[in-house]
Amino acid sequence: MSPQPLSIIGAGLGGVTLGKALLERGIPVVLYDRASSASRHGYGISLHASTYKPLLNMLKMDEQTFRKSVAVDAAVGGNGAIDPKKLICPRDVTSSSFRAHRERLEKLIRQGLDIKWESGLEKLEQTPNGTTLYLQNGNSIEGQICVVGADGVHSTTRKSILREAGLEVLPFVTFNGKRKVSRITFDDIYAPILRESNVIEIHNKGALLQVSVNDITAEQASVSWIYSRPAKGSSDRCFKPNRTLSDASEIPKEFYEEVTALKDLPQPFSEIFDEQKMQHDRTLTWLMRASKVDLPQLYQLASNGIFLMGDSAHSQAILGGEGANIAISDGLTLAEAIAAQNGETITSWYSKRFPAWQQSLETSKTTIEEMHGEQAPKSKV
Hints:
By secondary structure, this protein is an alpha/beta fold. It has helices spanning 13-24, 49-59, 63-70, 102-109, 156-161, 183-194, 253-261, 269-272, 275-278, 295-303, 311-314, 323-339, 343-372, and strands at 6-9, 29-32, 44-47, 98-101, 115-116, 121-127, 130-135, 140-143, 147-149, 168-169, 172-182, 199-204, 207-216, 220-230, 282-286, 289-290, 306-308. It folds into 2 domains: 6-74 and 100-167 and 290-372, 3-Layer(bba) Sandwich (FAD/NAD(P)-binding domain), CATH 3.50.50; 171-287, D-Amino Acid Oxidase, Chain A, domain 2. The longest helix has 30 residues, at 343-372.
């Protein structure tokens, strides 16, 4: 291993999990992230027992304490419960899965880590003398260093070294919004329907509608909604597969016209999919992206001390995907391989993980189609 700390690009779930797991093994790491602060992921994600139980050993926590620490409804005594029957396509969601507040989860995992904020990677170069990282703050790191790209679907690490690796945009129109409501409104309208679940889905007029809990306090609740449907070809004014990241907040008027056309919605969908109220929400248009890096390329990069994990190596669609769970598993298992200090072990890690990545990617594509299909199973609202 290099005498310098291992450099992890990206302080998201995968990056902090890897960093924490390496730190627990006495391996020094530094994380570099583009964000100006850590407070940026105030929404819920679904975690499965196969993912969070291995985390418990690293965090030295029991399951009850862990869930009460990070569950979206922890502040009011909840444990993030999910009812799979309230989902269109539960996939891996079972009664042991739960909704975790991503920001609180990341904060819990990253305790003790050295994270350099406002220090995202601008580019990476390989030279005969090693690797050089050029950071957004003007600093650079060079030498015989080990680097892990954990910087997500738009990974600068991947783009710097695999310029031909592109992203596939799946043909679905998806909008996501966040809203804060009073506890009175939440308790009167949302809670009676959600009951023992923090996420619920239905179909209406060819669209998938989802409502989920992000956070609950004594005074208010933060909820998210998703409106998603298959794209209708090049004439679809809501489908912009080539949009830039900065255009994600540009919401076409046709979307609100579609929302207005929704009829006979049950609660809490009729409350949240109210066109006038939605105008005040923080709304983004999501692109369902997928990508993967070939195994021989991963082997070659590893031989030069450069690794890819999480969405940097195997992006999958947000809907129907398991990106967060796989990123955490990547971090835990890659730490074991790196700690072995054996190049063959890293190659073995890729050989074991790659089939799982491929299977998950293909399953995510199938799941998102099933979620939107006419024959999709009905959730029990």
